[in-house]
C-alpha cells in the first residue's frame, strides 16, 4: 500500500481527476481512489479533507449541499474551469516527473 | 455515531472554534459516518467498524495546517511524556482490579446484615460475628483498593494522552457498552428480585431469617455488578477525553471543559478556578465515610439505636465539607 507521503504533491490532482468524471462527495471520492488503484492507495480522511480545503480556496473546486444521508445533506464537490486547467498542468508535469524518475529508478544502468 | 462525534470533539477540543473548523468537523463526521456504514455493510461488527474508521482517520495536524489554524496553547506547559500502550494496558488492568475489589467490598458490607440474619437462627454470638466479619473485610477492601488505585491514577496523571490512545479508548469504550448495559440491567434486576426471598419466606418455603439473608445477598450481588461495570466503563471513557492531560474523575476535580467560543471572537482558555476551601486532615479523608457507615451499621443493626445511627450519618455528612474542604484530591 502506498503512503500519503509517497504520493504527496499529487493528492490534489488525483482528486481533481476523480471529479473530472462528475460531481461527487467526500467518501465516494476516497472510495473511487481506492478502487481505481486496486486498494494500493487508501487516502485518509484528513488528507482528503485537507485537499478539499486547499482546492476550494484555490478556486479549483466548489462545494454545494447535495442529497440528505443519515439525516444531513452531503457536501458535494464540483470541478471548476480553473480546476480543469490546473489538472491539465499537473498532468503535463507528472509526465515529466515520471520520465525523470524513471531514468534513475527503473532504467537499467 | 456518538463515539465518532466524541472522538472528533476530542481532536477539535484544543482548536479555536470558527465557522471553518465547525464545518470541517461536521464534514469529517459525515466522511467517517459513510466509512463506518460501509465497514458495517462489509459484515464487520460495530466495534470493529469503529476501530477501522478511527484507525484510518489520519493526522489532525495536517488538516489544521490546511485550515490555517493553530491549536490553542495549553494553559500550562505540557512537557509530560506521552502515554504508551503499555501504560494504558496497565491502567485498564488496575481499573478492572479496582472495580472488582471495590465492588466486592461494597457487596460484603451490604451482605453483612443478611449473613447476620441467617446465622441468628443458630446463635446471637454467631450472628454478631457474621455481621462484623463481612463489614470489617468489606471496609478494609474499600480503603485498601481505593488507596491502591490512587497510585495507578497518579502515575497516569503524569502522562499526556495522544490521539492514537484516545482513538483506542473510544473503541474500547464502545465495545464495552454492551457488557456495561448487561451489568447495569442485571444489577438492577437483582435489586428488584431481592424481594423474592422474603416473599417466599412468608409463604412458608423457608425460615424468615433466611428470607432476610436472601434479600441482602441479592442486593449485594446487584450492586456489585453495577459498581463493577460502571468503573470499568469509566476507565475506558476517561482516556477518550481531551485535554491531553489525563484526569481521573474519581480522585481529581472535574477537568475544565473547553468552551465553544462564538465565531470571530478571541478563543478563551479555561483556567482552573482557585480553590477557596482549605483542605485539612486530607489523609483521613479515605477513612471518613467508611467509619461513618460502620458507626451507622453498628449502632443501627447491633445496638438497635436507629435514631442515633441516622443522626450520626447525617451530622457526619454535614461535617465532611468543613473538615476536608470541598474538593477531593
Count of DSSP-assigned helices of chain A = 5
N-to-C SSE string of chain A, H for helix and E for strand: HHEHHEEH
Domain unit count of chain B? 3
Uncertain segments of chain B: 247-279
The CATH architecture term of chain A is Orthogonal Bundle
Give the count of helical stretches of chain B: 12
Rounded to the nearest angstrom, the distance between the terminal CA atoms of chain A is 27 Å
Sequence of secondary-structure elements of chain B: HHHHHHHHHHHH
Share in helix of chain B: 55-70%
Fraction in beta strands of chain A: 15-25%
- Number of distinct beta strands of chain B: 0
Helical fraction of chain A: 55-70%
**How many strands of chain A?**
3
- Could you say which overall geometry of chain B the principal axes of the C-alpha atoms support? elongated
Order of strands, main sheet of chain A, comes to 1-3-2
Structural summary, described in words:
The complex is a heterodimer of chains A (109) and B (329). Chain A is an alpha+beta fold and 109 residues long. Chain A has one domain (4-105): Arc Repressor Mutant, subunit A, CATH 1.10.10.10. Chain A has helices spanning 4-7, 11-19, 26-36, 45-58, 81-105, and strands at residues 24-25, 61-69, 72-79. Chain A has a 3-stranded antiparallel β-sheet. In chain A, α2 (11-19) crosses α3. Chain B has helices spanning 2-12, 19-41, 46-55, 60-67, 85-119, 124-157, 163-175, 177-193, 196-202, 208-238, 285-302, 306-324. By secondary structure, chain B is mainly alpha-helical. Chain B starts with a helix and ends in a 5-residue tail after the last helix. The radius of gyration of chain B is 25 Å and the shape is elongated. Chain B folds into 3 domains: 1-69, no CATH class; 84-247, no CATH class; 275-329. Chain B has 12 helices and no strands. The A-B interface holds A 4, 25-28, 30-31, 42, 44-54, 69-70, 72, 74-75 and B 1, 24, 26-28, 30-35, 37-38, 56-60, 62-63, 65-67.
